[in-house]
Amino acid sequence: DLQSANIMVAEGEAHLIDFQGMRLGCAAYDLGALLYDPYQLYDRDVRMGVWQYYCGNVEALGGTPPEDDVLYAAAIQRLLQALGAYGKLWRKDGLDWYRQFIIPGLQMLVAASGENDDRPEMHRLACRALERAQKRLGVAAEDQDSSSASVRQMS
After folding, report:
1. Where are the alpha helices (DSSP H) in 1-155?
2. At CA 29, angle to CA 113 and CA 119, rounded to 5?
3. Could you read off the pLDDT of 74-101 as tens digits, one per residue?
4. d(CA 148, CA 131)
5. Residue 17 to residue 6: CA distance in whole angstroms
6. Rounded distance, CA 124 to CA 96, Å?
7. 148 pLDDT band (50/70/90 cuts)?
8. Residue pair 139/147 in contact by the 8 Å Cβ criterion
9. Residue 31: C-alpha distances to residues 49, 64, 128 (Å)
């Protein structure tokens, strides 16, 4: 559950919180969750810079860094999980606060699925879902234009 909301900085040191579900797994999943975080909307340069830094450190430690596609697949998996949670928390549990992260989550899904050409169907689905969400959630036309520009920049 590595996301920006679960990293606290105190006296210049980062601390992870909300780790009750922590277990050994694919590091790319945590990086995908953090770098494609709907709470932050990091741009592509930041995402790729951190990913390259991670891969460089894996190599420096004698390991084989994962292919970039592992990051994209992990980010897509995490975003689908997060979007499902946002929808449930908003619609079923009545927690309106999560509604605001549906469009940013879909924007990040568009970015993650469009980073390479391996998942064209997922990318088309993400783009359609973003368009529908913008219409259904009442995003103003000028916000749709800026969201579309952001998505193009992220892809």
Report:
1. 27-35, 44-60, 68-87, 102-114, 120-136, 141-154
2. 20
3. 999 999 999 999 999 999 999 999 999 9
4. 9
5. 5
6. 28
7. very low
8. yes
9. 12, 16, 26
Q: Which two tokens stand for residue 82?
A: 């997060």
- Average confidence (pLDDT) over 92-120: 95
16 phi/psi in degrees, rounded to 5? -90, 135
State both tokens at 6: 């679960």
Ramachandran angles phi, psi of 135, nearest 5°: -70, -45
- Residues 75/35, Cβ–Cβ less than 8 Å: yes
Longest dimension (CA), the chain: 51
Reference 107, options 155, 74, 45; nearest CA is 155
10-65 confidence digits (pLDDT tens): 999 988 877 777 777 888 888 999 999 999 999 999 999 999 999 999 999 999 99
Q: Which amino acid is at 41?
A: L
pTM to 2 decimal places: 0.82
In whole angstroms, what is the distance from residue 110 CA to residue 92 CA?
Answer: 25
Round to whole Å and give the CA distance between 5 and 16.
Answer: 9
In this structure, the number of other CB atoms found within 10 A of the CB of residue 93 comes to: 10
Give dist(CA 51, CA 35) in Å, integer: 8
